[in-house]
């Protein structure tokens, strides 16, 4: 069973202290398997694209990622505790919350038990 948390990158010490593996999903320094693109990140920050459009594009990216990188998704979900992390403030619109939804869908697909741990 995997417990899935969300966290700001700045909370890495709290994650480490709680035995939670921090998964950097940022476009800047994270795994491209789970990261958004610079285009949608800068677009939503500047107001050039809506949160709905960002969500749509990120959803398409993650669908493709899942098809092309199932083994990496499965490896991530085989861990005991993970925190999906980026630089956004807690409570703000952010892809880490969208990714958690996709990870839940992947857990169902792989028949992996999961729990949600909330924000670290």
Detailed description of the structure:
The chain is of the alpha/beta class and 120 residues long. It has one domain (2-119). It has 5 helices and 4 strands; from the N terminus they run E-H-E-H-H-H-E-H-E. The chain has helices spanning 12-17, 38-46, 51-68, 70-77, 95-110, and strands at 2-8, 21-24, 81-86, 114-119. It has a 4-stranded parallel β-sheet. Helix 2 packs antiparallel against helix 3 (51-68) and helix 3 (51-68) packs parallel to helix 5 (95-110). The longest helix has 18 residues, at 51-68. The protein is globular and about 40 Å long. The protein starts with a strand and ends with a strand. 29% of the residues are buried. The model has no long low-confidence stretch (mean pLDDT 96).
What is the number of helical segments per DSSP (H or I, 4+ residues)? 5
Number of DSSP strands? 4
Mind summarizing the main beta sheet? 4 strands, parallel
Helix content: 40-55%
Low-confidence blocks of residues: none
Overall radius of gyration? 14 Å
Give the termini separation: 19 Å
The ordered string of helix (H) and strand (E) elements is EHEHHHEHE
Strand residues, percent:
15-25%
Strand order of the largest sheet: 2-3-1-4
Q: Structural class, judged by helices and strands?
A: alpha/beta
Please, what is the average pLDDT? Answer: 96
Bulk shape: globular
Tally of structural domains: 1
């Amino acid at each position: 069973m995997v417990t899935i948390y969300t966290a700001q990158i700045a909370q890495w010490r709290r994650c480490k202290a709680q035995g939670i593996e921090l998964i950097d999903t940022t476009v800047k320094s994270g795994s491209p398997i789970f990261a958004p693109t610079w285009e949608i990140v800068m677009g939503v920050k500047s107001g050039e694209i809506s949160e709905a459009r960002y969500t749509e594009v990120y959803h398409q990216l993650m669908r493709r990622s899942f098809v092309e990188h199932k083994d990496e998704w499965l490896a991530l979900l085989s861990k005991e505790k993970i925190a999906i992390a980026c630089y956004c403030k807690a409570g703000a619109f952010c892809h880490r919350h969208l990714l958690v939804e996709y990870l839940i869908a992947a857990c169902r697909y792989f028949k992996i038990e999961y729990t949600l741990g909330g924000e670290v």
